[in-house]
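Bench notes, afternoon.
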Amino acid sequence: MSDTTARPDPLSWTCPAPVRDRPRVVMGHGGGGAMSAELIEQVVLPGLGGPVRAALTDSAVVELGGARIAFSTDSFVVRPLFFPGGSIGDLAVNGTVNDLAMSGARAAFLSCGLILEEGVELDTVSRVAEALGAAARAAGVRVVTGDTKVVESGHGDGVYINTSGIGLIPAGVDLRPERVTPGDVVVVSGAIGVHGVAIMSERENLRFETGIESDCAALGGLVDAMLSVTPDLHVLRDPTRGGLAASLNEIAAASGCGVVVRERSVPVPQPVAGACAMLGLDPMYVANEGKLVAFVPREHADAVLAAMRAHPLGREAAVIGEAVTDHPGMVVARTGLGGTRVVDMPMGEQLPRIC
């Protein structure tokens, strides 16, 4: 790390877990971990009149006119708006496209809602819109409707974006954590932790010997390649907020299976490993925006892995573990020294505002 004029404050990089019965929202409620789930299950869903325990997946699968449709919505509040490897515009498209892809759907249409802060430069809005349009064209999805609102100066952070998307799910595809069975192979599509570290380095003016760029990308094509091998994938998840650890814990809890991860098999690039070691972070909990984790029946694992590695977004795909009958609902990692550690669901948020 090079010297900078204003030294970053490490305390600003972590949101400590607050007391669980606090009466107000804290940053940890947006971290994608246990606090986020509690907020939804204990406050939001009861208010909506829904079940206390609902299927809290990235997209809903509904039937309409005999077709199975995936429907998803997401909001993006990242700071800064532009970062190495992407922008809030890229995130707004790719994040929703990927949520649909995790249901096996190829995104067809998106909506886009812009919330602009009074005083933001029109050139900034134009750059965001251009990035959003370019990402939509690259993902093969059309933005067909939208909305714009403006809030008073000091009541926003330049630009916030909400996108919703719909896509069709092919016949025979049934991706949900309840289908996970002991013996399933756990595969990740590439190196983890890149997006979170890229955001942090830009936000806090950190400089590392090797540049780190966000992995932000649309994963629809990679999912298509995997499904072309077999539609019998059990579950897919893009490990964004809360990182790989949160996704694995959510799948373990919903499936009732245990998950064992071989720590040394998890691909962590050296710049990410170095940054996390310096800052006291665990790469397993750092956000990604262009990676997926898959639970694949063992008999299809080799062929699916080969198809992933043949795709540009899956060249570094690796088998990192398996689903087991032991310790149901729990994720454990086998360390390089032969020990075992529990990989818990994150409580707060290591890096606030990463998407």
